[in-house]
Amino acid sequence: MNHIGFGLVLDVADPDAVAPFWAAALSYTVVGGVGNYVMLLPEGRSGPKLLLQRVPEGKTGKNRMHLDIDAPDIEAEAERLQALGARRLEPGQVQEHGHRWIRMADPEGNEFCLSEAAAA
C-alpha cells in the first residue's frame, strides 16, 4: 500500500520574516529557503511539512483554511505565542460543543486557532 503524505502551504508577504514564528509556534525546524519559498519540518517527529510561499498580493479576507494548534493550557500558550508576535483576534475564548479555542493571527495576519488539546 502506498503512503500518501501531505504538506501545508501558507501564502505570506515575507517567508523569511515569519518562518521563525511558525518554527517556534509548531516546534518545527526551518530547513531552508530558495527563491519565494521557505520550508519547515517537524522537530524529531512525523508531521506535515509547512511551506511558506511569498506572494505579491496582500491578505484581504478570512483564510479559507487555517491551522489549529492544540495545547493543554490555551491561555498559557496564547501568552507564549503573543510573545513571539501573534495576536488575539477577539477577547476571551470561543466555546462550542464542549470545546474551547482562541482565534489568533500570526505576525502577518494569517488566522489560526489555539485549540484545547483533547484529554488522553
From TrEMBL:
<keyword id="KW-0456">Lyase</keyword>
<dbReference type="InterPro" id="IPR029068">
    <property type="entry name" value="Glyas_Bleomycin-R_OHBP_Dase"/>
</dbReference>
<protein>
    <submittedName>
        <fullName>Enzyme related to lactoylglutathione lyase</fullName>
    </submittedName>
</protein>
<dbReference type="GO" id="GO:0016829">
    <property type="term" value="F:lyase activity"/>
</dbReference>
<dbReference type="Pfam" id="PF18029">
    <property type="entry name" value="Glyoxalase_6"/>
</dbReference>
<dbReference type="InterPro" id="IPR041581">
    <property type="entry name" value="Glyoxalase_6"/>
</dbReference>
<feature type="domain" description="VOC">
    <location>
        <begin position="1"/>
        <end position="117"/>
    </location>
</feature>
<dbReference type="InterPro" id="IPR037523">
    <property type="entry name" value="VOC_core"/>
</dbReference>
